[in-house]
Protein backbone atom coordinates (compact mmCIF):
# COMPACT_ATOMS: atom_id res chain seq x y z
CA UNK A 1 0.00 0.00 0.00
CA UNK A 2 1.28 3.45 -0.89
CA UNK A 3 1.76 5.87 2.02
CA UNK A 4 -1.24 8.25 2.37
CA UNK A 5 1.08 11.25 2.13
CA UNK A 6 2.32 10.01 -1.25
CA UNK A 7 -1.26 9.81 -2.55
CA UNK A 8 -1.81 13.38 -1.29
CA UNK A 9 1.45 14.56 -2.90
CA UNK A 10 0.48 13.10 -6.28
CA UNK A 11 -2.93 14.76 -6.18
CA UNK A 12 -1.39 18.04 -4.98
CA UNK A 13 0.90 17.95 -8.01
CA UNK A 14 -2.06 17.44 -10.34
CA UNK A 15 -1.40 13.79 -11.20
CA UNK A 16 -4.24 11.38 -11.92
CA UNK A 17 -4.71 8.73 -9.24
CA UNK A 18 -5.37 5.12 -10.23
CA UNK A 19 -8.51 3.40 -8.97
CA UNK A 20 -6.33 1.18 -6.79
CA UNK A 21 -4.67 4.16 -5.06
CA UNK A 22 -8.01 5.85 -4.45
CA UNK A 23 -9.45 2.59 -3.10
CA UNK A 24 -6.53 2.14 -0.69
CA UNK A 25 -6.88 5.72 0.57
CA UNK A 26 -10.65 5.35 1.16
CA UNK A 27 -10.13 1.99 2.88
CA UNK A 28 -7.67 3.76 5.20
CA UNK A 29 -10.26 6.48 5.84
CA UNK A 30 -12.88 3.84 6.76
CA UNK A 31 -10.54 1.83 8.99
CA UNK A 32 -9.02 4.87 10.66
CA UNK A 33 -5.46 4.24 9.42
CA UNK A 34 -5.55 7.51 7.45
CA UNK A 35 -5.58 10.49 9.82
CA UNK A 36 -8.13 13.30 9.82
CA UNK A 37 -5.39 15.72 8.79
CA UNK A 38 -4.47 13.54 5.81
CA UNK A 39 -8.12 13.32 4.71
CA UNK A 40 -8.39 17.12 4.98
CA UNK A 41 -5.21 17.55 2.89
CA UNK A 42 -6.54 15.11 0.29
CA UNK A 43 -9.87 16.98 0.09
CA UNK A 44 -8.06 20.31 -0.35
CA UNK A 45 -5.82 18.85 -3.07
CA UNK A 46 -8.91 17.61 -4.93
CA UNK A 47 -10.58 21.00 -4.41
CA UNK A 48 -7.71 22.80 -6.17
CA UNK A 49 -6.61 20.19 -8.73
CA UNK A 50 -9.93 18.52 -9.54
CA UNK A 51 -10.36 14.95 -10.73
CA UNK A 52 -10.70 13.29 -14.11
CA UNK A 53 -13.85 11.30 -14.83
CA UNK A 54 -11.91 8.08 -14.26
CA UNK A 55 -10.64 9.28 -10.88
CA UNK A 56 -14.12 10.44 -9.81
CA UNK A 57 -15.59 7.05 -10.81
CA UNK A 58 -12.85 5.35 -8.75
CA UNK A 59 -13.57 7.55 -5.73
CA UNK A 60 -17.32 6.95 -6.00
CA UNK A 61 -16.93 3.16 -6.25
CA UNK A 62 -14.44 3.08 -3.36
CA UNK A 63 -16.87 5.01 -1.15
CA UNK A 64 -19.74 2.76 -2.23
CA UNK A 65 -17.69 -0.30 -1.32
CA UNK A 66 -16.89 1.02 2.18
CA UNK A 67 -20.15 -0.48 3.49
CA UNK A 68 -23.15 -2.64 2.60
CA UNK A 69 -24.30 -2.75 -1.02
CA UNK A 70 -27.98 -3.60 -1.30
CA UNK A 71 -29.22 -6.14 -3.81
CA UNK A 72 -32.86 -6.55 -4.72
CA UNK A 73 -34.93 -9.42 -6.09
CA UNK A 74 -38.06 -7.54 -7.09
CA UNK A 75 -40.52 -7.84 -10.01
CA UNK A 76 -39.89 -4.26 -11.23
CA UNK A 77 -37.02 -1.81 -11.77
CA UNK A 78 -35.36 -0.25 -8.70
CA UNK A 79 -35.06 3.53 -9.14
CA UNK A 80 -34.46 6.77 -7.27
CA UNK A 81 -34.30 10.54 -7.69
CA UNK A 82 -31.91 13.00 -6.06
CA UNK A 83 -32.32 16.77 -5.72
CA UNK A 84 -29.50 19.22 -5.05
CA UNK A 85 -31.86 21.08 -2.70
CA UNK A 86 -34.09 24.13 -2.75
CA UNK A 87 -37.06 25.90 -1.17
CA UNK A 88 -40.53 24.33 -1.33
CA UNK A 89 -39.00 21.23 -2.92
CA UNK A 90 -41.20 18.40 -1.63
CA UNK A 91 -41.01 16.50 -4.94
CA UNK A 92 -39.84 13.23 -3.33
CA UNK A 93 -43.00 12.94 -1.23
CA UNK A 94 -45.17 12.74 -4.36
CA UNK A 95 -42.78 11.25 -6.91
CA UNK A 96 -41.82 8.12 -4.93
CA UNK A 97 -45.42 6.85 -4.51
CA UNK A 98 -46.31 7.88 -8.08
CA UNK A 99 -43.40 5.79 -9.37
CA UNK A 100 -44.44 2.89 -7.12
CA UNK A 101 -47.94 3.08 -8.65
CA UNK A 102 -46.29 2.76 -12.10
CA UNK A 103 -44.53 -0.51 -11.20
CA UNK A 104 -41.20 0.78 -9.86
CA UNK A 105 -39.58 0.09 -6.49
CA UNK A 106 -38.15 3.20 -4.87
CA UNK A 107 -35.67 2.80 -1.98
CA UNK A 108 -35.09 6.54 -1.49
CA UNK A 109 -32.28 7.61 0.84
CA UNK A 110 -32.79 11.28 1.67
CA UNK A 111 -31.10 13.93 3.78
CA UNK A 112 -31.90 16.53 6.39
CA UNK A 113 -31.97 20.28 5.78
CA UNK A 114 -28.64 21.68 4.59
CA UNK A 115 -27.91 25.40 4.90
CA UNK A 116 -31.00 27.37 3.84
CA UNK A 117 -32.64 24.41 2.07
CA UNK A 118 -35.24 22.08 3.54
CA UNK A 119 -34.61 18.35 4.00
CA UNK A 120 -37.00 15.55 3.01
CA UNK A 121 -36.18 13.67 6.21
CA UNK A 122 -37.14 16.63 8.40
CA UNK A 123 -40.45 16.85 6.56
CA UNK A 124 -41.22 13.18 7.19
CA UNK A 125 -40.24 13.55 10.85
CA UNK A 126 -43.25 15.89 11.22
CA UNK A 127 -45.47 12.80 10.79
CA UNK A 128 -46.06 11.30 14.28
CA UNK A 129 -44.48 7.86 14.66
CA UNK A 130 -42.72 7.84 11.27
CA UNK A 131 -39.36 6.06 11.64
CA UNK A 132 -37.10 7.94 9.22
CA UNK A 133 -33.98 5.91 10.03
CA UNK A 134 -35.00 2.24 10.22
CA UNK A 135 -32.66 -0.73 10.03
CA UNK A 136 -31.90 -2.27 6.64
CA UNK A 137 -34.30 -5.18 7.20
CA UNK A 138 -37.31 -2.87 7.67
CA UNK A 139 -36.11 -0.67 4.79
CA UNK A 140 -36.13 -3.71 2.49
CA UNK A 141 -39.52 -4.90 3.76
CA UNK A 142 -41.25 -1.53 3.26
CA UNK A 143 -39.72 -1.04 -0.20
CA UNK A 144 -40.96 -4.49 -1.23
CA UNK A 145 -44.46 -4.18 0.25
CA UNK A 146 -45.28 -0.47 -0.24
CA UNK A 147 -43.25 0.01 -3.43
CA UNK A 148 -41.37 2.93 -1.88
CA UNK A 149 -39.56 3.81 1.33
CA UNK A 150 -38.10 7.25 2.03
CA UNK A 151 -35.51 7.06 4.81
CA UNK A 152 -32.24 8.59 6.00
CA UNK A 153 -28.75 7.25 5.38
CA UNK A 154 -27.99 4.28 7.61
CA UNK A 155 -24.58 3.58 9.14
CA UNK A 156 -24.26 0.54 6.83
CA UNK A 157 -24.40 2.46 3.54
CA UNK A 158 -21.27 4.28 2.29
CA UNK A 159 -19.83 5.03 5.77
CA UNK A 160 -16.73 6.58 4.15
CA UNK A 161 -18.96 9.33 2.77
CA UNK A 162 -20.17 10.28 6.25
CA UNK A 163 -16.62 10.68 7.54
CA UNK A 164 -15.32 12.48 4.46
CA UNK A 165 -18.32 14.85 4.44
CA UNK A 166 -17.80 15.79 8.10
CA UNK A 167 -14.19 16.72 7.32
CA UNK A 168 -15.14 18.64 4.14
CA UNK A 169 -17.73 20.58 6.14
CA UNK A 170 -15.07 22.06 8.46
CA UNK A 171 -12.28 22.50 5.89
CA UNK A 172 -14.06 24.66 3.27
CA UNK A 173 -14.03 21.91 0.63
CA UNK A 174 -17.78 21.21 0.43
CA UNK A 175 -18.10 22.92 -2.99
CA UNK A 176 -15.65 20.63 -4.83
CA UNK A 177 -17.63 19.15 -7.75
CA UNK A 178 -15.78 15.76 -7.78
CA UNK A 179 -16.30 15.41 -4.01
CA UNK A 180 -19.99 16.41 -4.25
CA UNK A 181 -20.38 13.90 -7.09
CA UNK A 182 -18.79 11.02 -5.17
CA UNK A 183 -20.76 11.87 -2.01
CA UNK A 184 -24.14 11.81 -3.75
CA UNK A 185 -23.50 8.83 -6.01
CA UNK A 186 -21.76 6.52 -3.52
CA UNK A 187 -25.00 6.33 -1.51
CA UNK A 188 -27.12 5.83 -4.64
CA UNK A 189 -24.85 3.06 -5.92
CA UNK A 190 -24.90 1.39 -2.50
CA UNK A 191 -28.72 1.35 -2.70
CA UNK A 192 -28.54 -1.08 -5.65
CA UNK A 193 -30.43 1.04 -8.18
CA UNK A 194 -31.17 0.24 -11.82
CA UNK A 195 -31.90 3.84 -12.85
CA UNK A 196 -31.43 7.29 -11.31
CA UNK A 197 -32.66 10.77 -12.22
CA UNK A 198 -31.07 13.93 -10.82
CA UNK A 199 -32.75 17.28 -10.17
CA UNK A 200 -30.01 19.95 -10.15
CA UNK A 201 -31.44 23.26 -8.98
CA UNK A 202 -30.31 26.59 -10.40
CA UNK A 203 -31.08 30.10 -9.12
CA UNK A 204 -31.25 32.31 -6.04
CA UNK A 205 -32.57 29.51 -3.80
CA UNK A 206 -30.09 26.87 -4.98
CA UNK A 207 -26.52 26.03 -4.02
CA UNK A 208 -25.67 26.37 -7.71
CA UNK A 209 -26.87 29.90 -8.43
CA UNK A 210 -25.75 30.10 -12.10
CA UNK A 211 -26.63 27.91 -15.06
CA UNK A 212 -22.90 27.31 -15.67
CA UNK A 213 -22.29 25.91 -12.17
CA UNK A 214 -25.50 23.84 -12.27
CA UNK A 215 -24.51 22.41 -15.66
CA UNK A 216 -21.00 21.56 -14.41
CA UNK A 217 -22.46 19.59 -11.48
CA UNK A 218 -25.15 17.89 -13.59
CA UNK A 219 -22.64 16.83 -16.26
CA UNK A 220 -20.24 15.49 -13.61
CA UNK A 221 -22.99 13.49 -11.88
CA UNK A 222 -24.36 12.00 -15.10
CA UNK A 223 -20.91 11.18 -16.50
CA UNK A 224 -19.61 9.55 -13.28
CA UNK A 225 -22.84 7.66 -12.52
CA UNK A 226 -22.94 6.13 -15.99
CA UNK A 227 -19.20 5.43 -15.76
CA UNK A 228 -19.90 3.52 -12.55
CA UNK A 229 -22.61 1.47 -14.26
CA UNK A 230 -25.76 3.27 -13.06
CA UNK A 231 -27.99 4.54 -15.87
CA UNK A 232 -28.57 8.23 -15.02
CA UNK A 233 -29.97 11.41 -16.56
CA UNK A 234 -30.39 14.89 -15.04
CA UNK A 235 -32.67 17.87 -15.32
CA UNK A 236 -31.60 21.41 -14.44
CA UNK A 237 -34.64 23.05 -12.85
CA UNK A 238 -35.47 26.59 -11.79
CA UNK A 239 -34.99 27.69 -8.17
CA UNK A 240 -35.29 31.45 -8.74
CA UNK A 241 -38.59 31.13 -6.89
CA UNK A 242 -39.93 28.47 -4.50
CA UNK A 243 -41.05 25.29 -6.26
CA UNK A 244 -44.21 24.74 -4.21
CA UNK A 245 -46.24 27.67 -2.89
CA UNK A 246 -45.13 26.78 0.63
CA UNK A 247 -42.03 26.04 2.70
CA UNK A 248 -41.74 24.34 6.09
CA UNK A 249 -41.88 20.75 7.28
CA UNK A 250 -45.47 19.85 8.26
CA UNK A 251 -46.74 22.47 5.79
CA UNK A 252 -44.94 20.76 2.88
CA UNK A 253 -46.23 17.34 3.99
CA UNK A 254 -49.78 18.75 3.97
CA UNK A 255 -49.08 20.18 0.50
CA UNK A 256 -47.88 16.74 -0.68
CA UNK A 257 -51.10 15.14 0.60
CA UNK A 258 -53.15 17.78 -1.27
CA UNK A 259 -51.11 17.02 -4.41
CA UNK A 260 -51.55 13.24 -4.13
CA UNK A 261 -55.28 13.51 -3.48
CA UNK A 262 -55.84 16.11 -6.23
CA UNK A 263 -56.98 18.86 -3.86
CA UNK A 264 -54.26 21.29 -4.98
CA UNK A 265 -51.34 20.86 -7.40
CA UNK A 266 -49.05 23.86 -7.96
CA UNK A 267 -48.30 24.00 -11.68
CA UNK A 268 -44.51 24.50 -11.47
CA UNK A 269 -44.24 21.72 -8.91
CA UNK A 270 -46.30 19.36 -11.05
CA UNK A 271 -44.22 20.19 -14.14
CA UNK A 272 -41.03 19.14 -12.32
CA UNK A 273 -42.58 16.01 -10.76
CA UNK A 274 -43.87 14.82 -14.15
CA UNK A 275 -40.61 15.65 -15.94
CA UNK A 276 -38.47 13.72 -13.43
CA UNK A 277 -40.86 10.77 -13.36
CA UNK A 278 -40.97 10.68 -17.17
CA UNK A 279 -37.17 10.43 -17.28
CA UNK A 280 -37.31 7.23 -15.21
CA UNK A 281 -40.25 5.70 -17.06
CA UNK A 282 -38.49 6.25 -20.37
CA UNK A 283 -35.06 5.13 -19.04
CA UNK A 284 -36.58 1.86 -17.80
CA UNK A 285 -38.64 1.52 -21.00
CA UNK A 286 -41.89 1.35 -19.01
CA UNK A 287 -43.33 4.04 -21.26
CA UNK A 288 -42.68 5.24 -24.79
CA UNK A 289 -41.52 8.84 -25.27
CA UNK A 290 -44.54 11.11 -24.94
CA UNK A 291 -46.59 8.55 -22.98
CA UNK A 292 -44.78 8.69 -19.63
CA UNK A 293 -46.48 11.84 -18.37
CA UNK A 294 -49.98 10.45 -18.87
CA UNK A 295 -49.04 7.25 -16.97
CA UNK A 296 -47.92 9.36 -14.02
CA UNK A 297 -51.11 11.47 -14.24
CA UNK A 298 -53.14 8.27 -14.15
CA UNK A 299 -51.27 7.11 -11.02
CA UNK A 300 -52.51 10.30 -9.35
CA UNK A 301 -56.05 10.32 -10.74
CA UNK A 302 -56.69 6.66 -9.86
CA UNK A 303 -55.71 7.20 -6.22
CA UNK A 304 -52.97 4.55 -6.49
CA UNK A 305 -50.15 7.00 -5.71
CA UNK A 306 -51.93 8.16 -2.52
CA UNK A 307 -52.50 4.50 -1.59
CA UNK A 308 -48.75 3.73 -1.90
CA UNK A 309 -47.93 6.80 0.22
CA UNK A 310 -50.40 5.63 2.89
CA UNK A 311 -48.83 2.17 2.93
CA UNK A 312 -45.29 3.59 3.24
CA UNK A 313 -46.23 5.92 6.11
CA UNK A 314 -48.07 3.18 8.04
CA UNK A 315 -45.32 0.59 7.45
CA UNK A 316 -42.71 3.01 8.82
CA UNK A 317 -44.68 3.63 12.03
CA UNK A 318 -46.90 6.55 11.04
CA UNK A 319 -50.72 6.80 11.16
CA UNK A 320 -52.87 4.59 8.95
CA UNK A 321 -54.71 6.20 6.02
CA UNK A 322 -52.56 9.30 6.45
CA UNK A 323 -53.83 10.97 3.27
CA UNK A 324 -57.33 11.19 4.76
CA UNK A 325 -56.31 11.88 8.39
CA UNK A 326 -53.25 14.13 7.95
CA UNK A 327 -54.96 17.30 9.27
CA UNK A 328 -55.55 15.51 12.57
CA UNK A 329 -51.90 14.44 12.91
CA UNK A 330 -49.81 17.36 11.60
CA UNK A 331 -49.09 20.15 14.08
CA UNK A 332 -50.27 23.68 13.34
CA UNK A 333 -48.56 26.88 14.43
CA UNK A 334 -50.18 29.17 16.99
CA UNK A 335 -49.89 32.28 14.79
CA UNK A 336 -51.03 32.07 11.15
CA UNK A 337 -51.04 35.52 9.59
CA UNK A 338 -50.55 37.16 6.20
CA UNK A 339 -47.58 39.37 5.34
CA UNK A 340 -47.83 42.15 2.76
CA UNK A 341 -45.31 43.85 0.51
CA UNK A 342 -44.55 47.51 1.14
CA UNK A 343 -45.15 48.08 -2.60
CA UNK A 344 -47.93 47.33 -5.08
CA UNK A 345 -47.50 45.77 -8.51
CA UNK A 346 -46.23 42.41 -9.79
CA UNK A 347 -43.55 40.12 -8.38
CA UNK A 348 -40.46 40.84 -10.50
CA UNK A 349 -37.96 38.69 -8.64
CA UNK A 350 -37.54 36.75 -5.40
CA UNK A 351 -34.36 36.22 -3.40
CA UNK A 352 -35.46 32.66 -2.70
CA UNK A 353 -32.64 31.99 -0.25
CA UNK A 354 -34.23 34.55 2.10
CA UNK A 355 -37.38 32.41 2.24
CA UNK A 356 -35.32 29.46 3.46
CA UNK A 357 -33.64 31.68 6.04
CA UNK A 358 -37.10 32.88 7.18
CA UNK A 359 -38.15 29.27 7.86
CA UNK A 360 -34.97 28.76 9.92
CA UNK A 361 -35.63 32.00 11.86
CA UNK A 362 -39.11 30.68 12.67
CA UNK A 363 -37.52 27.50 14.11
CA UNK A 364 -38.24 25.25 11.13
CA UNK A 365 -34.55 24.60 10.37
CA UNK A 366 -31.23 24.34 12.17
CA UNK A 367 -28.63 27.01 12.89
CA UNK A 368 -26.34 24.27 14.25
CA UNK A 369 -26.61 20.50 13.77
CA UNK A 370 -27.84 19.90 17.35
CA UNK A 371 -30.86 22.27 17.07
CA UNK A 372 -34.32 20.75 17.43
CA UNK A 373 -36.95 21.67 14.83
CA UNK A 374 -40.41 23.18 15.20
CA UNK A 375 -42.24 21.19 12.52
CA UNK A 376 -45.36 23.39 12.51
CA UNK A 377 -43.77 26.68 11.39
CA UNK A 378 -43.12 27.92 7.87
CA UNK A 379 -44.66 29.75 4.94
CA UNK A 380 -47.69 29.14 2.75
CA UNK A 381 -49.62 30.90 -0.03
CA UNK A 382 -46.30 32.13 -1.45
CA UNK A 383 -46.69 34.37 -4.46
CA UNK A 384 -44.56 33.60 -7.50
CA UNK A 385 -43.04 35.65 -10.29
CA UNK A 386 -45.59 37.67 -12.24
CA UNK A 387 -48.25 37.45 -9.51
CA UNK A 388 -49.96 40.72 -8.57
CA UNK A 389 -49.75 42.03 -4.99
CA UNK A 390 -51.39 45.02 -3.29
CA UNK A 391 -52.75 46.12 0.09
CA UNK A 392 -55.41 43.40 -0.03
CA UNK A 393 -53.23 40.67 -1.61
CA UNK A 394 -50.41 39.32 0.60
CA UNK A 395 -47.09 37.98 -0.65
CA UNK A 396 -47.37 35.03 1.75
CA UNK A 397 -48.83 33.62 4.95
CA UNK A 398 -46.48 33.11 7.89
CA UNK A 399 -46.95 30.22 10.34
CA UNK A 400 -45.15 31.16 13.58
CA UNK A 401 -45.24 30.14 17.23
CA UNK A 402 -44.21 33.51 18.70
CA UNK A 403 -44.49 37.17 17.74
CA UNK A 404 -40.71 37.70 17.56
CA UNK A 405 -40.36 34.88 15.02
CA UNK A 406 -43.26 36.28 12.97
CA UNK A 407 -41.72 39.78 12.93
CA UNK A 408 -38.29 38.51 11.84
CA UNK A 409 -39.78 36.29 9.13
CA UNK A 410 -41.97 39.16 7.86
CA UNK A 411 -38.89 41.38 7.55
CA UNK A 412 -37.06 38.71 5.55
CA UNK A 413 -40.09 38.12 3.32
CA UNK A 414 -40.41 41.81 2.49
CA UNK A 415 -36.69 41.94 1.67
CA UNK A 416 -36.95 38.82 -0.51
CA UNK A 417 -39.70 40.09 -2.82
CA UNK A 418 -38.97 42.74 -5.44
CA UNK A 419 -42.14 44.32 -6.77
CA UNK A 420 -42.36 46.24 -10.07
CA UNK A 421 -44.80 47.06 -12.87
CA UNK A 422 -44.61 43.54 -14.32
CA UNK A 423 -42.86 40.23 -13.73
CA UNK A 424 -41.96 37.27 -15.93
CA UNK A 425 -41.90 33.60 -14.92
CA UNK A 426 -39.26 31.38 -16.52
CA UNK A 427 -39.56 27.67 -17.41
CA UNK A 428 -39.60 25.15 -14.55
CA UNK A 429 -37.30 22.75 -16.42
CA UNK A 430 -34.35 24.58 -17.95
CA UNK A 431 -32.20 21.84 -19.49
CA UNK A 432 -31.74 18.09 -19.78
CA UNK A 433 -28.37 16.41 -19.38
CA UNK A 434 -28.43 12.95 -20.93
CA UNK A 435 -26.04 10.03 -20.99
CA UNK A 436 -25.52 10.11 -24.75
Describe the structure.
With 436 residues, the protein is of the alpha/beta class. It folds into three domains: 47 residues, Transferase, Pyrimidine Nucleoside Phosphorylase, Chain A, domain 3 (Up-down Bundle), CATH 1.20.970; 248 residues, Nucleoside phosphorylase/phosphoribosyltransferase catalytic domain (Pyrimidine Nucleoside Phosphorylase, Chain A, domain 2, 3-Layer(aba) Sandwich); 86 residues, Aldehyde Oxidoreductase, domain 3. The protein contains 17 helices and twelve strands. Strands 1-4-5-12 form a four-stranded mixed sheet, sandwiched between helices. Strand 4, helix 10 and strand 5 form a beta-alpha-beta unit. It starts with a helix and ends with a strand.
- Strand count: 12
Q: State the share of residues found in helices, binned by percent.
A: 40-55%
Give the count of structural domains. 3
Apparent shape:
globular
CATH superfamily of the largest domain: Nucleoside phosphorylase/phosphoribosyltransferase catalytic domain
- Assigned CATH architecture of the largest domain: 3-Layer(aba) Sandwich
Q: How are strands sequenced across the largest beta sheet?
A: 1-4-5-12
What's the SSE pattern? HHHHEHEHHEHHEHEHHHHHEEHEEEHEE
